Amino acid sequence: MFKDISSYLFVWEIAYSSTELAAVAGAFFFAAFVKGATGLGFSTTCLPFLVYAVGLKRGIPLILLPSITSNILVMVDAGSFREMVVRFRWMLLATVPGILLGLWFLDVAPAQEAVVVLGFVLISYALFAYFTPHLKLSYEMERFLGPVSGFITGVVNGITGSQIMPVMPYLLSLNLNSERFVQAINCSFTLSSFVMAGGLYYLGLLDLSALGVSALGLAFVYLGTKLGSVVRQLMSPSVFRASILLLLFGLGLSLLVKGF
Description:
Distance between the termini: 47 Å
């Protein structure tokens, strides 16, 4: 038994160098701070740094456990959980088959092109939303576009690991208050993370080594999320929206740099 444990620890040590572990810890803390401050973006903020440090396919499994943890911490603070689950249930359900399709693409095709496309989408939306701050969907369009948004978000998530598009512009267009927006989008993030975990395990991309690194990074996630939550409570609605758009624009640029 002790021999098996020591063998596992040795393999885990070889799988991630000290430099990689330091980069992962820093990415976790920064992404969690952004998550606490804006209610979104842990996976998408973290992934560009992890791609540089360990590569896309090794980086995606690392974010699952911290992402779920940061989601739950933010959801507890936001409230209105039942209300948002009921209102956006069809969007959430449509996310599942989208993720499965996206994971299939991740397994059979290179993800570099998807990263570039995602970068363009993030930048385009940030600019569009900045110049159309009062865009609002009708109730009929909200019901129609909810499942469409959920499915496409799932596909993008499965391919790139990012959970933010197009569920972000969809929810922003509904003019929810900041707490309901945070709760709704984190319901989507949390469901996506659990489905991704199962899919990545099936594809052989999620192993004990990745889970070990994720577990060690939870302390950084907790500290970053709590500090960011304090900042969020001090933001006005206009600053809250501007912070989201700035985050999207910066993430899009970083993905383009990596893609090219």
